[in-house]
């Protein structure tokens, strides 16, 4: 019966397990990151939180408890100094992060990387507000009216006035204005076509005159 023996079975006796956990916690505070087996990382997580809680208190009794656990005065002094300077102050818990690496070659043990979470903690309400603000649809920008569109509107209004319509928006007015615009467009196209024909005829005449002059020069 395993009376008064809570925790995971790590394959060692009690004294070996205690020393191993202490050395892993000290290595984590010293390097900010360690690579170990998943079961050991989960087992030392409460001990890491306990040491950081002592450092947050910052009194003499908490410092003596941390020295008694880690058995390293310099490391305890460094931890307490970092916490007094503002590290972990805005974080109420969850001081460690575990990232899985997959099975280890040989015994297929699940390996992880365990590290200290040093990023500033953002409250949940602020995160939700930022996410809602980001997901909110943006207001459509007012459409810019170009000079060409303004001229077309003015032209249609003039046509409506010339045709004798006073109230805007009637179907008869819209149809009449469209017909007038189409007729004007047809007339403009005809005028452009006539101009193009005249220009082509003039160019042909100049070409013929040049050819005649060249032939005369050759005869001479």
Structure, described:
With about 220 residues, the protein is mainly alpha-helical. The chain contains seven helices and three strands. The chain has a three-stranded antiparallel sheet with strand order 1-3-2. β2 and β3 form a beta hairpin. It is elongated and about 125 Å long. The termini are far apart. The mean pLDDT is about 80.
Observed structural traits:
single chain, 220 residues, mainly alpha, three-stranded antiparallel β-sheet, 7 helices
Envelope shape: elongated
Q: Kindly report the average pLDDT value.
A: 81
Can you list the strand order of the major beta sheet?
1-3-2
> What series of H and E elements makes up the topology?
HEHHHEEHHH
> Tally the helices: what do you get?
7
Give the uncertain stretches in residue-range form.
none
Helix content: 55-70%
Q: Please identify the structural class as seen in this structure.
A: mainly alpha
Distance between the ends:
133 Å
Largest sheet: 3 strands, antiparallel
Tell me the strand percentage band. 5-15%
Quantity of strands, as a count? 3
Q: What does the radius of gyration come to?
A: 44 Å
Summary?
Part of the 50S ribosomal subunit. Contacts protein L32. This protein has 220 residues and is mainly alpha-helical. The protein has helices at residues 14-31, 38-57, 60-70, 73-84, 124-135, 147-163, 171-219, and strands at 33-37, 96-103, 110-116.
